[in-house]
Amino acid sequence: MARSTTDTHEGFTAEERAAMKEHAKEQKKAASRRGSRAEKEAAAERDVLAKIAGMPEADRVIAERIHALVKAAAPELKAKLWYGMPAYARNGKVVCHLQPAGKFKTRYATLGFSDEAALDDGTVFPTAFAVKELTEADEERISALIARAVS
Hints:
The protein is of the alpha+beta class. The chain is globular. The chain has helices at residues 14-32, 37-53, 57-73, 136-149; strands at 78-82, 85-90, 93-99, 109-113, 128-131. A five-stranded antiparallel sheet has the order 1-2-3-4-5.
């Protein structure tokens, strides 16, 4: 039996579908870029900075600081968009990313680390951190996490 388009289902949310569409566009854009590796990386950095600049103020303030912390603590990580979010990669693989609160309509931003990050600490350890604002102590902790993630 065919399902009506008005039926409810347990599929992806509108925000998740939008993120997947953004990811597909990012992949196409990256694949179509011409130039040297350095030129492609510079273009990806500009894309991330433009995405951050377009965020609502609360998300933008956090994203700008996270971006600066990543660049200072792990300059070898390259900025790129990942599902429409600022992300930082090594050898093309995302190590960490910032999910702005507005992205999925949550009450806080999330700094997430992938399995590429060297954050292992025993058998159970966090890989995502809620970020509501950034104090100096928070920035120090995040810098240390990022440096550890690439060690």
